[in-house]
Design a protein that fits this description.
Blueprint (H helix, E strand, L loop, with lengths): L2 H22 L18 E2 L15 E3 L11 E5 L9 E5 L2 E2 L5 E10 L3 E11 L11 E2 L8 E9 L10 E8 L4 E3 L2 E3 L3 E9 L6 E13 L9 E2 L2
Antiparallel strand pairs: 1-4, 2-3, 3-14, 4-13, 5-13, 6-10, 6-14, 7-9, 7-13, 8-9, 10-15, 11-12
Length: about 230
């Protein structure tokens, strides 16, 4: 075997290894960093079936690069009287999930006036689609059937009122089956949401950027937020 063949084989191996790595780290959220002409494509900010969040949409905006440290980020900007009651939220459009698979969720956060909670939530077909839609039951949309929440993974919260960027992250395993109304069903979709809240009736805001949902191998682990320099 000559040196050219050895070199060519090495290049092919490197390309294959790189493609495997990139595939393993693929973000399953279609627009995790709010790109394009419609930065909220792939996101939900309006929740007409949820009593606490019917008026949520105006609170969620794109932040200016100056206030977000040069990042593309959303700001959840709450008027007085909201943070101490329901808070404000943004949630990704549900994407297909593999039952029994392990995933990692990551969200860059800069809490400013408030704190934040981050959840990854799995959904399965609702066997009773005629029941009232709530925070736990979603109406049919974009080809998805009526859904019912069947699993929630809470991410360790980022530091409250930190005024600096940090990454909140957690790995979790989606159940292979869940019991809904007495019968086994498989999780079908998953979404990621952030709730901005505070134990106050004052106005305030926080910033969020670069949402990632990645399928990984390995056991479930809980990880603390990592403060970025």
């Amino acid at each position: 075997m000559n040196s050219h063949m050895i070199r060519f084989g090495g290049i092919l191996y490197a390309l294959l290894f790189s493609s495997l790595l990139n595939g393993a780290d693929k973000n399953l959220l279609s627009n995790g960093n709010f790109e394009g002409k419609d930065p909220f494509q792939g996101w939900m900010t309006d929740f007409p079936d949820e009593a606490f969040y019917k008026g949520n949409a105006p609170y969620v905006k794109m932040a200016t690069p100056a206030e977000a440290g040069g990042r593309r980020a959303v700001v959840i900007d709450l008027p007085a009287g909201i943070a101490g009651n329901q808070g404000g939220k943004i949630e990704s459009v549900p994407v297909p999930v593999e039952p029994g698979a392990t995933y990692r969720v990551e969200v860059d956060c800069m809490t400013w006036d408030f704190s934040a909670k981050i959840h990854a939530e799995a959904w399965s077909s609702d066997p009773n689609p005629g029941q009232k839609r709530t925070i736990f039951r979603r109406a049919p949309a974009d080809g998805r059937p009526a859904l019912m929440m069947c699993y929630r993974a809470q991410v360790p919260s980022p530091p409250g009122q930190s005024k600096q960027w940090s990454t909140a992250t957690r790995e979790f395993k989606v159940p292979k089956t869940v019991v809904i109304t007495g019968k086994d069903q498989k999780p079908e979709f998953i979404s990621v949401k952030v709730v901005n809240y505070g134990a106050t009736m004052a106005a305030g805001k926080s910033y969020f950027s670069n949402f990632r949902l990645i399928r990984v191998d390995g056991k479930e682990t809980d990880q603390k937020p990592v403060v970025k320099p």
